[in-house]
Amino acid sequence: MLVSAGYLRELAEKTLLVHGVGEANAHLQAELLIEAELRELPSHGLQRLPRLVARLNAGLADPRATGVARETRPAVLTVDGERGLGPVVMMHALDRLAGLASSKGIALAAIRNANHIGMLAYYAEAAAAQNLIGIVLTTSEALVHPYGGTEAMLGTNPIAIGIPTGTDPYILDLATSRVSMGKIHHHALTGTPIPENWAVDGQGRRTTDPEAAKAGAIAPFGEAKGYGLGLGIELLVAALAGSAFAPEVGGTLDATEVANKGDILILIDPAAGEGSAAGLAPYLERLRASRPADPARPVAVPGDGMRTRRGRALTRGVEVPDHLHEEIRALAEG
Amino acid sequence: MLVSAGYLRELAEKTLLVHGVGEANAHLQAELLIEAELRELPSHGLQRLPRLVARLNAGLADPRATGVARETRPAVLTVDGERGLGPVVMMHALDRLAGLASSKGIALAAIRNANHIGMLAYYAEAAAAQNLIGIVLTTSEALVHPYGGTEAMLGTNPIAIGIPTGTDPYILDLATSRVSMGKIHHHALTGTPIPENWAVDGQGRRTTDPEAAKAGAIAPFGEAKGYGLGLGIELLVAALAGSAFAPEVGGTLDATEVANKGDILILIDPAAGEGSAAGLAPYLERLRASRPADPARPVAVPGDGMRTRRGRALTRGVEVPDHLHEEIRALAEG
Questions:
Q1: SS3 B280
Q2: Is there a domain that residue B289 lies in?
Q3: CA B263/CA B273 separation, integer angstroms
Q4: What is the distance between the alpha carbons of residues A241 and A158, in angstroms, rounded to a whole number?
Q5: Which residues in chain B have Cβ-Cβ distances shorter than 8 Å to A221?
């Protein structure tokens, strides 16, 4: 069904409040889910709410925790997320880190023991809205095979980059896997084969069968280079956050394990540099105006499509599967 | 001809000394060129030396400059490279930045007005050798088209990441272009067609003709994701270093323009985090031992191949084209 974002936000907040989450925390967690829906990223949207409620009920997610930050160096925070909700721990860390980044020029927070932080673009945008460059890294369960390999040994290890430009910020948010496991699940649900280069089955053979792929591993994006980048993120996060490596990670796709992945947030104050954020927008305009491969599809800059989809969904509403809506309505009754 | 790395290093140093470069600077610049040759990366090796000499002779490269660093914030240096040799300015910045990174936990240097810095892996290794995580970014002339575009609007914008692991460091060094322009030149020289997805010609049409591709643009690696990453690097470097955007960049492929690209160096002290560098090596061992797609080709970790090639070349020698050797020998005579 097609419903308004406002209605969904209230429904998600109510669901969280009923399950013991404090008002500010419920607002923030609901916002992350709704912002993902508005950008047509359902894998990071409301479908995560029932699992989150199960995690709250199981004591795997602490409804009140905001994380405890320790300043290990003048420009580094390490954060014990205390099993808090991912967005709550992240935004507390970001608020504190912004002060460090402004005074020191660059600052890093390494976060462990927080729940799934959702769509990374949100934090990149939050940084850019404070006129800071934001770089966000996170890890996940083992879902991706190495280049030249066939076993799931790496997380989907996304990176987001937010850069203020004087007008709309540059917002990049990408997983280092070829596709998301959510997309493979979608193919399985609709019974459509997947392209040959997406995944291997449990025996390590290339497969076009989405059910077989679910038991196997996703390819890294961009062959050896994307693998290298995803592995670099795996190592950076583990080295700094003290979090687990993908094969031992649990807690973002289940309601039985403590979330033991890690998250990294780096903020940089562009005013500490010699360039000008306002100088970026004209270059991006030239890029958009450059000759496209298909005359009907102008060159886009990361963040453009997301803003278009969000604006459209704010007007038209968000499409939510009936069964999911019913499930959340029932959860909201407690 | 096959010659020893030691011979080549002496020859390169002598060539630089004869053209007014001070001893320490000549040593460092020669080292970058030879280390690229040892890793079978000739595009960043001795073939750059004649152009470098021309740049010295034209006053576009200052043989003595080491760069002037300004601490704009406690964890940020901005560096005016004073037209110095790229490796000289970079290593001076790295040495000073290492102190900041150790005390502040993380530190960033934004460098402009330095010549081509060569193979990025060198700096990532230098950071890891000091038990620091190193992230290196640089920009270049416009050689890469946007995803969905056809005009050269972006640099090849490489990134290197060095992470100490307890044993061999993790060393990633990749351009965000599908291939290097050097590789396309190599196809042109040998008269072999290029794969269809590498490049477009001057009219923006996909081409397999390397000569046509030289007048066109290279595709980004990894489609939209690689484009986003390359563009993010373009923006980060320009915003912080105050350097030019790719369409206005000159000076790394010619002997007529001042080098106006930018370079970024970020160093992080892993001891400021909660993880353990020594914990990374066992995970990388598991990765190497995981099931390969081809039983004859074990899974590799970025840095592995480079170390193998380097070790082999130290024993066997380095293959240098006769004409290049003659050209450099003539330059070494002054």
A1: helix
A2: no
A3: 26
A4: 16
A5: 222-223, 225-226
Nearest residue to A17 (alpha-carbon basis) of A32, A27, A4? A27
Rounded-to-integer distance, Cα A120 and Cα A44, Å: 10
Domain's final residue, options B272, B294, B317 = B272
Q: Give the strand pairing for B68-73 and A76-84.
A: unpaired
Strands of the sheet containing A206-207, edge to edge, are A206-207, A199-200, A217-218
Mean pLDDT of B59-74: 98
- Indicate whether A5 pLDDT > 90: yes
Rounded Cα gap, residues A110 and A241, in angstroms: 5
Span A141-160, mean pLDDT? Answer: 98
Write out pLDDT tens, residues A166-190: 999 999 999 999 998 888 988 988 8
Question: Which residues 109-138 of A are in CB contact (within 8 Å) with B?
Answer: 110, 112, 133
Q: Say which of A110, A153, A232 has its CB closest to residue B172.
A: A232
* C-alpha distance from residue B246 to each of A54, B140, B226 (Å): 50, 6, 16
ipTM of the complex: 0.97
Which positions in chain B touch A235 (Cβ < 8 Å)?
163, 165, 170, 280, 283
Q: How confident is the model at residue A236 (pLDDT cuts 50, 70, 90)?
A: very high
Please state, as a whole number, how many other Cβ atoms lie within 10 Å of the Cβ of residue A316: 11
Cβ neighbourhood burial of B195 (10 Å; 0-12, 13-18, 19+): exposed
Does residue B78 share a domain with residue B57? Answer: no
Q: Is A85 among the domain residues?
A: no
Whole-model pTM over 0.90 = yes
Q: Tell me whether residue B210 is in a domain.
A: yes
Whether residue B278 lies within 8 A of chain A, CB to CB, comes out as no
The whole-angstrom separation of Cα A328 and Cα A17 is 13
Q: What residue of A is the nearest CA neighbor of B204?
A: A293
Query: Considering only CA atoms, which of B246, B270, B250 is closest in space to residue B258?
Result: B250
Residue A207 belongs to what domain range?
178-219
> Of the residues B227, B254, B272, which one is the last residue of a structural domain?
B272
Beta bridge partners of B204: none
B84 and B126 co-located in one domain: yes
Residue B279 lies in a domain: no
CB atoms within 10 A of CB B208: 16
pLDDT of A313 above 90: yes
Which domain CATH number covers B50?
Answer: 1.10.1530.10
Q: Which two tokens stand for residue B195?
A: 């794969």
Domains of chain A: total = 2
pLDDT at residue B189 above 90? no
Q: CA of B99: how far to CAs of B77, B109, B265, B268, B309, in Å?
A: 12, 12, 13, 11, 32
